[in-house]
Amino acid sequence: MTQFREIASGLRFPEGPIAMPDGSVILVEIERQTLTRVQPDGRQEIIAKTGGGPNGAAMGPDGKCYICNNGGFTWGTDDGLLHPTGQAEDYAGGRIERVDLETGAVEVLYSECNGHPLSGPNDIVFDGQGNFWFTDLGKVRERELNHGAIYYARCDGSLIIEAMHPLAKPNGIGLSPDDKRLYAAETDAGRLVAWDIVGEGQLSRKAWPAIEWGDVVISPEGNIRFDSLALEANGNICVATLMTGGITVAAPEGGVVEVIPLPDVMTTNICFGGPGLQTAYITLAATGRLIAMDWPRPGLPLHFLNK
Fold first, then answer.
1. Distance (Å, rounded) from C-alpha 6 to C-alpha 110?
2. Which long-range contacts (CB under 8 A, 24 or more apart) does 82-91 make?
3. Is 5-294 assigned to CATH 2.120.10.30?
4. Which has the minimum average pLDDT: 137-151, 263-277, 292-306?
5. What is the distance between the alpha carbons of residues 64 and 127, in angstroms, rounded to a whole number?
6. Segment 18-47, tens digit of pLDDT
7. d(CA 84, CA 149)
8. What's the pTM?
9. What residue spans define the domains of the chain?
10. Residue 1 confidence class, pLDDT cut points 50, 70, 90
């Protein structure tokens, strides 16, 4: 069994962890609709109430927290495990939000692109220029499914670009150590796909019939689904894995390096912090826990946070 330390419990479907320099971890609670700070001793404080469904989160160059808000889910509990079941009854669209950590003030930065509403923004990563890429998972309704997409945006609200569409439920997103390659995990397909970045908001597009127009890094067999991700300093991609529960580590050139099992079928995200960035903080969403474990390799420093 994988050895880990439980930092906090009682969280309401945690996601989007950010390991802060002071030792705390900022994360979202999707079901509670909050941005929450968890102290090293497990104490929790609500930074902001966002409404909707706060999902991925990242620190920007201005010291504010940028959130992918998916617009909200309905929820169910099976065998004591919390999980989303569909679109919230009060769903009014997705958005990118910016939160002031000092005051808790929430502002909407983007809610559409070229007249097309954002459906379900999911995960976010900043590049070294202070702008960001994010996935839009789409939205599932009883008899409909919105297509997903990858977007690029400037953090001052002046530009948003639809970089890749349509995609099949893109979820986790990350950048290679040199910021030249973009990775995205597809939830239902259980697939990790990569693209070269060829310009501002521009991704290389392979010719048909390439899978999702990019390079497939891994596509493991079996009943798995992929959620959010983080990178190691050596370029490996660590993908939170649903259904089986755990973290799947992929090599950038392709292939699975290792699979680290964890006791939650909704293992939703991972980030790195601590000395040498060799502590992995992982959200176990269905059981409402934030855990930490020693990681065999250092994580990739994030722009505007770990450097």
1. 35
2. 82/12, 82/13, 82/31, 82/266, 82/285, 82/286, 82/288, 83/13, 83/266, 83/285, 83/286, 84/13, 84/30, 86/140, 86/141, 86/142, 87/139, 87/140, 87/141, 88/52, 88/53, 91/52, 91/139
3. yes
4. 137-151
5. 15
6. 999 999 999 999 999 999 999 999 999 999
7. 20
8. 0.97
9. 5-294
10. low
Tokens 């919390």, residue located? 82
